[in-house]
Design brief:
With about 100 residues, the chain is of the alpha+beta class. It has one helix and five strands; from the N terminus they run βββββα.
Length: about 100
């Protein structure tokens, strides 16, 4: 994975060009058939795993966080974080990262 793909909006202050990149979007489809278009906010690592933060285009202030796993150069998989304790820690790490930005 290239460094720019792990960047958070606004840049990383490490010389990469992520602040200049156009936003990437994906569509989530939930079990009930509802689809939500989401902007990919960024991918970050925590405790040896990668996670992705998504901003839904539904008018809310929500941020969706999933586990992230690359399956090949062009594709990736979103993984539900089913463990409540893991989710809590990942959200805390995400909040630290966004405050630093």
């Amino acid at each position: 994975m290239e460094d720019k793909e792990k960047c958070m909006p606004g840049g990383c202050n490490d010389g990469c060009s992520c602040a200049e990149e156009d936003a990437d979007y994906l569509t989530l489809e939930f079990d009930d058939g509802q689809e939500v278009e989401c902007e990919i906010m960024g991918v970050f690592e925590f405790e040896g795993k990668e996670y992705i933060a998504l901003i839904p285009d539904d008018g809310s202030d929500d941020v969706y966080i999933y586990g992230y796993k690359e399956t090949n150069d062009e594709e990736f998989e979103l993984i539900d974080i089913e463990d409540d304790e893991e989710f809590k820690k990942v959200v805390e790490e995400f909040e630290k990262l966004t405050v630093e930005e």
